[in-house]
Amino acid sequence: MTIPHLDEYRGTSVQVCGLWPFAVGASAPMVGVPLGRSLQTGATLCCDPISWFQRANLISNPSVFVLGKPGLGKSTIVRRMALGLAGYGVQPLVLGDLKPDYVDLIEALGGQVISLGRGRGHLNVLDPGEARSAARRLTGSARTRVMADAHGRRLNMVSALLTIVRSAPPTDREETILDRALQVLDERHDQDSAPVLADLLKVVQDAPDEVRHVALDRGSMDRYREITEHLEASLIGLVGGGGRLGEIFSKPTTNPMRLDRPVVFDVSAIEESERSLQAAVLLACWSSGFGAVTVAHALADAGLAPRRHYFVVLDELWRALRAGAGMVGRVDALTRLNRQLGVAMAEISHTMSDLMALPTEEDRAMAKGFVERAGMVICAGLPEAEMPLLNSAVNMSRAEQKLLASWQDPPAWDATTGREGAPPGRGNFLIKVGGRPGLPVHVDLTAAEATINDTNKLWHEASRIGASAPTGQE
To answer: Which InterPro entries does this chain map to (predicted)?
Structure first.
């Protein structure tokens, strides 16, 4: 059988509207994690930020921002990407799982679950992690860079904790004192173990000459005590185990992070009402995670470890941004450096309104930039009122806006079963890259994924109250 070769022409919808009057989305390459089936053609659609950045060259930034109302599958599509990328050798890193939505996935992949919360584990912000052991294997400028990065991260974390405790940042003089005190601590402390905040407090209290010099006490110990009194009081609050931050940061790290496997920081035990503690723990998780990535790349650059890429998930981003001072700026810095850090990022929030509800205009502009800079934006169902804000960050046609609004309709009542059916838009997503037409896709779970995508475990069993209570009980 011979198939004739036909001439092929291409034109805009305006030029060829008489020949083909139907507007369709752009075609997608078969590159990346299979997400689902196109709602237009029924063909399999493959997509993930690493494959579309590294192999297909479709996006200039390996990142994805996911928006959509609750219950429509935002976390599900990110878990599908994480699972598929793990098959390609990419390590998923969930740096702060607030629900939790990713613990089952990471466990299924043979990864590491690090639980944090009151009475559930400790994370020592002065622990350089793998940086110290890596420095012993590195030489020259590579060793210097790794240790300098570790020092900077520890200083920034102590400053961040003080900012959260005080609701105001430390002064320039206090940061200089902390910087020098950390250097003295590293020189004095046993290299076989990591120092803790109590050790840093003791250095400040001991008043070594190096610290007194930068404190500008002019040779007066009384003046030094006066200069460091506020700093000392704040550090005592962190070390004492009481207050808003408890003892999570005051003891050695319970479960050190691994570099060679998927990782999730399970912080779901922290109540949403404890915003200060949420902010502090999330900052510590991000610092620990990206510090580990930096060390991994330094070892790979020196030929001492295999090159690894990472898929970093920042779920419930709106909660993290509202959790405390400095959060928006820190996320902004991370989203700008993900290419240099060798990671892909998935940021997840409900609506643009969540990002625009931040207290200052500067924070709101930064948060909007997260969506604008993302290599791709994936939208589930969204309310009609959300469209002007969304369109200000992502160019959406009127037809695409109506499609997203139709996916957020509530489920219908099934009179046969006596239950509500699934929401009509559950599993439906629109993938947008720049100004190109969106790609609508439906994600169906496989049998193997069903057990790692259940976010309603606490609702499976009916409440044992009333008619179901044992006889003789009310």
So the answer is: P-loop_NTPase (IPR027417)
